Amino acid sequence: MNRIRKGDEVIVITGKDKGRRGTVLKFSANDRLLVEGINLVKKHQKGDPKAGQQGGIIDKEMPIHISNVMLYNGITKKGDRVGIKVLEDGRKVRYFKSNDEVLDA
User: Fold this and answer.
1) pLDDT at residue 1 above 80?
2) In a designed cystine with 81, which of 58, 65, 97, 100 is the match (CB 3.0 to 4.6 A)?
3) In sequence order, which residues have a C-beta less than 8 Å from that of residue 6 and are 6 or more positions away?
4) Is 45 within a domain?
5) Does residue 69 form part of some domain?
């Protein structure tokens, strides 16, 4: 069970975007995440008139390693560590370690 999943709100804890928040768009191989609005780079793109694509310099989101983000806790307004515990009915759920709030209902 992954501690961070697609659709979770995360906060960056290190790097050029430290302190910024975003939503996980994609979970790719090698423990890398694509986060909305985080780790933007300038890409020089060639135009393609057949596809109606204009050339120029575009901003593109690049993947960031999972160790550089923490799950955002809305109650404490900070990044928080996540644990996994098994409930009485046998389900595995994620929870915040600081206040034992369950993430998965």
Assistant:
1) no
2) 97
3) 24, 25, 26, 27
4) yes
5) yes
Q: Identify the band that residue 105 occupies on the pLDDT scale cut at 50, 70 and 90.
A: low
Residue 31's CATH number: 2.30.30.30
Do the domain assignments include residue 48?
yes
* Residue 67, φ and ψ in degrees, nearest 5: -75, -10
Indicate the Cα dihedral angle 88, 90, 94, 98, nearest 10°: 20
Report the alpha-carbon distance of residue 93 to residue 102 in Å, rounded.
7
Note the pLDDT tens digit of each residue in 9-57: 999 999 999 999 999 999 988 899 999 999 999 999 999 999 998 999 9
